[in-house]
Amino acid sequence: MITKFRIDQSVAQEEFGLACQRLIPWTDAPEDPPLGAMACFLRPGGSSLPDCHNQDEFMLILDGTGTLDLAGESTSFEKGDMLVLPRNQEHVVHNGSADENLVWVSLYWPLREVPQS
């Protein structure tokens, strides 16, 4: 069975100081997935709240430009870039644009949360 999702900011909910659309796990997933995924939408000129978790994270930048602050280090990124964030490292994402959303998909593992309904 094929399950199809569309990244859609209109169904995202406020989390971590930005809008997040939970992708994995989904409400009626047949099994417990080994990872989680969400689409993230950060308003122009905005910054996420500081976050630190015991999960590795992979960010795929879909649109926009920004900066990632991770454990005292900073790097800029743009559409098409991929970033790997090691677990237990505090991080903050900044949108570098004054007029466009920054959009990315984060994959994180191992999964330590319950599906959103």
Automatic annotation (TrEMBL):
Domain Cupin type-2: 42-107
InterPro entries for the chain: Cupin_2, RmlC-like_jellyroll, RmlC_Cupin_sf
Any one Pfam family match given in the protein's UniProt record, by short name: Cupin_2
Taxonomy, superkingdom: Bacteria
Protein name: Cupin type-2 domain-containing protein
